[in-house]
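Folded chain entry
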Amino acid sequence: MQTMANSLLVCDMDGTLLQADQGISEQNLTAIKYFVEQGGLFTVATGRTERSVEHYLDRLPINVPAILYNGAVIFDFPTGTYLMDCRLPDETHRVVSQIIEMFPGIGVEVYHEGVIYYPFENSITTMHRYREGFNPDFTDFDLLPPLWHKVVLAIDPGIIETVHTYLRGIAQGFDIVQSEPHFLELLPAGANKGSALRTLTAMIDIDLSHTIAIGDNLNDLEMIREAGYGFAVENAHPELTRNADFSCAHHNDHAVADLIRKVELIMERER
């Protein structure tokens, strides 16, 4: 009997599936392959672009569409198509301009159709591109294409709350989420991993009660709440841990493999 049949596992990448060196442990890969062999459906929910996730497709057995750009997009890799595609409003350009004027030195990453633009770079954005291995486009801010998927603001953690408060006062038509200690993200209104999970389950005809989600930061919060089984890794933000149904190992200690072991035991008890 396929013990994971009709179950969907949705996994955050950075700080969850990926270890500190950006690799996936053999323990995690073996466990995910076992989950799929037992009839499970597997995908990722990440702030990354489709180009960034493609790097891992030769190893990960993703068998349903992926949630990208922190919930703004649902992307089908076999066909290369957007199944859901949410964009920021035009006024985002003005808001980012105000932020840069008010807080000089903030780095800006603009995500648009698989390309990451760097109109304003700082030491944090430099670290980010080296860590994840992508090659940004350094196009001037006023020459960027319209209708962005998301914007990442790279901010000294010492002022991130001040910037967040300022943004809430001037931002209309989009949501703000902290994805890492030094990142604030601007997303289309209502776009998050939780709402994308609801849309995805409807697309593939899976009940939300049969979903398992795992994450580490505040951009995973809605997804953890929506899932039938919400897991926080040991290194998770305290608020995510408080909202999760279960906890599992640190992302450097094969967290996804630990989750799959625990889920199998939980499901056996529930039968």
About this structure: The first strand starts at residue 8 and ends at 11.
